[in-house]
Amino acid sequence: MLIRLKGGRVVDPTQGPSSVRDVWIRDGRVIEAPQGDEPADVVHDVSGKVVMAGAVDVHSHIAGGNVSLARQLLPELHVSEDPASAALPFGTARWSSWEIGRLYAEMGFTTVVEPALTPTAALHTHLELADIPIIDRGALTVVGNDDHFLKLLRDGESRDAIRDAIAYHLKATRGLGIKVINAGGPAAFHSGLRTFDLDDVVPHYGATSRRIVETLLTAAADIGIPHPLHLHANNLGVPGAVDTIKATIAAAEGRPLHFAHIQFYAYGKDADGGMTSAAEEISAAMAAAPNITADVGQVMFGPTVTISLDLMKQWSGKAYASPKKWTIFDGDAEGGGIVPFHYKTSNWINQLQWAIGLELFLRSEDPARMLMTTDHPNGGLFTWYPTILALLMDKELRDRWTAVLPEQAKARTGLMSLEREYTLEEVATMTRSAPAKLLGLPDRGHLGPGAVADVSVYDDNPDRVAMFTGARLVLKDGNPVVRDGKALGWAMGRTHQLSPDYDGAMDRRMTTYLTDRFGVGPSAFAVPDAAFGERENFQVEALLK
Amino acid sequence: MSADTKEQLAGLDERIARAVGLLAKARLPLISGLGADVDAVRAALLLAQKTGAAVDHAAAAHIAVELRVTADAGHMATTSAEARNRADTVVFAGPGAIDFADDSGLFATAETPYDWRGDRTVLCLGTGGRVPSSVAAVAATHLVGGPLAGRLGALKAIVAGRTVAGADAALTAAAETLKAARFGVVVVDPADLDRFGFELLHALVKDLNDTTRFTTLPVPASHQGRGANLVSTWTTGGRLRVGFGRGYPEQDDWQFDGTRLAAAGEADVLVWVGPLGPGLPDYATNLPTIALVPPGSGATDSADHVVIEVGVPGVDHGAVLADTVVDGFSFVPASAPSALPTAAAILAAITAGLATGAS
Ligand SMILES: [Zn+2]
């Protein structure tokens, strides 16, 4: 089938300057304009509209045991109140997988990555992801805190053995990349420690956080994982954490490394130990290290819930739980901490966190290396994205928000002096081409020939919040899935994964280990196709050569 | 395919049509039981959204005690593998914990990947004098009798440094045992406590974490209770019990309690989804019923009791089940594949029948 998107202003810096032109699609892929006068089977007239590739989110907690635990902890935070239409069962069920897919798609997002795929909850996580409609999904396999890995380090195992062990976990759990959380911290928490820094040692294993990160950087490169090691660094939320980031950048020694929700580390410390913005310092450190990427983890105001495998952080964070209830789950490796939190406009620290996030966006020289996230739901819900884009694109709007900042916050951030306004092209880079490339999804995030025909069409509305909240038209694989800001029905996307090879000896070795540990062998982590019935759920992506 | 199976399948369309007919005229269907695999629960929730039904589960204590306390106060918990491997102190709180340990053999091995753990200290609390027979590598066993909730309250006070009138030596020693743990786990069956007692237990465990590491291992819910509630959690945004009368899910433990809905005459048709049991509840006698049950359940088909025999997940057909391989979900292949339909397929066929208006 030949589809023509007619007369829109195409904003896709990967294909050159923005211009009014047609986009042609055949059989779910973008193509060059056909030769001759072949008529389109379907024409979407998008004159006067802005046409972009579907947006991509690299870090949003949308599925898995800890997300469901948060749903169970806080029923009062997501009371449903609108009937679902017949075409969209559960589509208005708040915090459901169905609502997540609908809301993302209506904003023009077509691929979203869950960053915490824990091996023992791999099937659970994938079952939830498979029930998120419309969008494509992926997930990052969590490694680095489990007994098996830490013993490899303790026993001085070879680089090949470690490569194979990580490849085994990645393939078994069907992840799209690997992530490590406060490397060694959760393991240390199980043994009673309550703080953990880059050069602290995990009890009983003799490995430092630094060594875990360095080992995983090597393994990621040896396996050929396109997405850089995704790092939730030590000392999240601690004044002075900027030093941890700088030390970790140094430890990467030029190798690709992605910092998750870096806003939560862009904190300096004044003489009294109080929090200040270190956004400028972080931006300078990143400018000098082109191997580093980050997503922001922007804080927005209102009640939310923090969901993290960083047990140590959640243990200390529970003091600020609002409402006063929380859950800590000691898992087989990390586990989870669920702590409700209310970011208040009346709290100068929360205001400062908000300002620091925006500073990071605006100070980043390259929109491809500072990506938009709220670490949903940790800094705020992903539905804040249109507001964040509006704040980045409009200095006057920012001025209205910063006018009410308390003096303590104002004195500690340079946000008010930043004049920069993001262009639509920078937005397209930050929310489309850069995250797709970073995840190793070369046929997404752009509208060049061969790209998957995931396309978002927006009104060029000066009210950017309205513009990005409800896309005029969204195509998924060339098919309309959203029109006039409303999802049309439940098309189902795919979950993208890697499937690296490794030495067969690792299969035997892991079978023995998993049998000893869980009594069941490889089925402990297994995510078989049969679990999804008739659904064709997975798509394997290429490794780096 | 056996002759019997052929006969069963032959009557299937007719029975599905009768089920559709019952639901088409229902004011408030009740879908319950749900001792079923993930696909069946997904299909049941879709039928509920379609018909405005109320949805309940047979594992009442899991909902009324364990999940209720999570929503009220939060909790601390761990996995069975961590309890077995890491815990140097294991508290069996209540008789259900003893039964679980001995039935599952969870602590029957001394082996652990954590070679620093050492032998286990065992504390039996409110177990009616019982101690588990299956625990290996036991350094010492302590026994504290008396009512479980009362003992938990006293221990919490002692751990917090308060003096407790009438605290005997065993209780004081028990508090010391708890505080001396490096990684302690309380094994508890939520059915042995009401929600206040269960919340008290978690308050004690949280307090203990100020100075050491402690957590709990709840005895798994019966009849796939954990799995069914999780499927509801991601599908509707909240756990069971849930009702769809307004076209969107409303979670309410009292309003959508199946036993209450039946007794009050509010529910006017029951859809019992029980491929993994339990059998039909007593109240089914007085309600038009659509029963999805395994062969040999003894349920008899009649005008307003439609009985549809379905396969057993993990036996007749492969299925995703909870807590069978590890804590959480795993795929269990069919051990004796048969042509019996899945509960999910029957529920989907009924939903489709309602959509087309066929009856
Ligand atoms: Zn995160």
TrEMBL record, chain A:
InterPro entries: Amidohydro_3, Formylmethanofuran_DH_asu, Metal-dep_hydrolase_composite, Metal_Hydrolase, Metallo-dep_Hydrolases_sf
Gene3D superfamilies: Urease, subunit C, domain 1 (2.30.40.10)
Pfam families assigned: Amidohydro_3
Record domain Amidohydrolase: where: 44-482
One GO molecular-function entry: hydrolase activity, acting on carbon-nitrogen (but not peptide) bonds
Record NCBIfam families: one_C_dehyd_A
Listed name of the protein: Formylmethanofuran dehydrogenase subunit A
TrEMBL record, chain B:
Protein name from the UniProt record: Formyltransferase
